[in-house]
Structures are given as C-alpha cells and as structure tokens.
Amino acid sequence: MFRWKMKEVLLTQDAALYGLAQNALRDGGIRYETNVVNSGSQNRRTGGLGRLGENVNLEILYYIYVNPKDEEEAEHLITQCRDRLGR
Predict the structure, then answer these.
(1) Mapped to the 3 state alphabet, what secondary structure does the chain carry?
(2) What pTM, to 2 d.p., does this model score?
(3) 73 in a structural domain
(4) Could you tell me if residue 74 is inside a domain?
(5) Which residues contact 27 (CB under 8 A, 6 or more apart)?
(6) Which of 68, 54, 57 is nearest to 8 (CA)?
C-alpha cells in the first residue's frame, strides 16, 4: 500500500518502543510499514565540529504506518507497549 494512504500510529525516538511495537503489530497480524529518519549532522558528513551541541540520542526518528482500517487496534497495541516500558 502507498504510505500516503496509511495512518501514522507511532513516531518516536525510542528504539526499544519501536522494536516492541513492531513485534506487537506482527503478532497481532497487522500489516505495517516503517520509516527511519536520521536527522543528525553526521548523516550529512559535516564533520566533527558540526556535531557540537547535538544530542545524538535524539537524532533518529522511527515511524510506523498502518492501513486506516487497522489504526484503532494498532494504537491499542502500541499503548500496551508503552505501558510495558513505563513510558
């Protein structure tokens, strides 16, 4: 399915939550697509000085998208993942 037809159910910088959410959706039989975006300067090859002041833990954005008909169930599963992690 084209991503523009899908609903975003997760946007996080937490790799643990991203992994748990993928497992929960897979186990729940929900098809999903992902996108990972590195917004840090290192991916633009600006060198060491370009990283001064950056929090490298906040560079990567993890997205999960599902079919609109699965959105409610997917959000419920992701909420359970957040609860399990205490987030």
Answers:
(1) CCHHHCEEEEEECCHHHHHHHHHHHHHCCCCEEEEEEECCHHHHCCCHHHHCCCCHHHCEEEEEEECHHHHHHHHHHHHHHHHHHCC
(2) 0.79
(3) no
(4) no
(5) none
(6) 68
Yes or no: say if 47 and 71 are a contact pair by the CB < 8 Å rule: no
Whole-angstrom distance, CA of residue 30 vs CA of residue 16? 19
Query: What is the domain extent for residue 10?
Result: 3-68+79-85
Range with the lowest mean pLDDT among 14-28, 48-62, 73-87?
48-62
| HSE-CB for 2 with a 13 A CA cutoff | 2
